[in-house]
Amino acid sequence: MRRNELDEMQLQKRNKIGNQAFMLLFYLLMTDIGLYGFGFRWLKYPLNVYVLMMVCMTYYLIRVVWQSSFVGPQQSKKTMGKKTRYLTGAVGFVAAVTVFIFQKYFNVIPASNGQDDGALILMVFSIVLIIIAAGVSFIAKRQNKDDNNSM
Amino acid sequence: MLLKSRGDDVGKNLRLKSSRAAKDMSQKVLAEAAGVTRQTINAIENGDYNPSVNLCISICRILGKTLDQIFWEDDDDAEK
Fold first, then answer.
1. Residue range A38-57, pLDDT digits in tens
2. Which residue has the higher pLDDT, A2 or A68?
3. Is A147 in CB contact (< 8 Å) with chain B?
4. In this complex, do B37 and A146 lie within 8 Å of one another by their Cβ atoms?
């Protein structure tokens, strides 16, 4: 078995959870379409799909971590090296400066007429995603710690 | 009868547990040697997971036993 791979039980569990999450997403989307057809709109169009996807993704991640199928048996510690950290920071900085310059001096007109809240949804989506990823990483690290009651 | 099909109540594999204890190995040590997680070894011992033949062979090699000695379940054992 190669390092950093899930073992057979973990793979089996992860596949099972993946199938469940997919079916959950399918049924939720179908239900949403049904509700939409009956005239019940609980959220505006793109947002409802995002929320359903988030629900399913959160379900998948929580179940995978809960079933100890997130990290493999001999997973090496994933830490960013110094170079990677600097590079990530530099890329972020350049992106921020570029966006600022474009906004300030080139007066970019938004593609939409201001009614589209896709940007807001994407931002919220990204923030929630980061929070979930951080939470999952934290739980996975805790799970990966050696436990002494294994005799 | 070898291990029952997946999803059935396989029953605790006490022979694996005793063989491991006889070698003074923890679940973690055995799991590392077999290339699986400790939870997998624990699940096999508790009968919650039915391992593949490859994993059975790997465990047997580590413990110095044969497949029969650890994973074969005859009718008497099944009735217990």
1. 988 888 888 889 889 989 99
2. A68
3. yes
4. no
Q: Residues of A with CB below 8 A from B43's CB? A: 9
Contact A68 B39 (CB under 8 A): yes
Question: What stretches of chain B show up as alpha helix (H) in DSSP?
Answer: 14-22, 27-34, 38-46, 53-63, 67-71, 75-79
Q: Are residues A67 and A18 part of one domain?
A: yes
Look at residue B65 in the predicted model and tell me its pLDDT.
93
pLDDT digits (tens, 9 = 90+) for B10-62: 588 899 999 999 999 999 999 999 999 999 999 999 999 999 999 999 999 99
Query: For helices B14-22 and B53-63, what crossing angle results, to 10°?
Result: 30
| Judgement on whether residues A62 and A33 belong to the same structural domain of the protein | yes
Single pTM value for the model: 0.66
Distance (Å, rounded) from C-alpha A41 to C-alpha A58? 23
CATH number at residue B41: 1.10.260.40
The interface predicted TM-score of the complex, written ipTM, equals 0.78
Which residue in the block uniquely carries the two structure tokens 């391992």? B51
pLDDT at A128: 81
E strands, A6-129, are none
How far B77 CA lies from chain A's nearest CA (Å)? Answer: 24
A10 interface with B at CB cutoff 8 Å: yes
Same domain, A103 and A114: no
Domain residues for the domain of A99 are 78-108
Q: Which domain holds residue B53?
A: 14-79
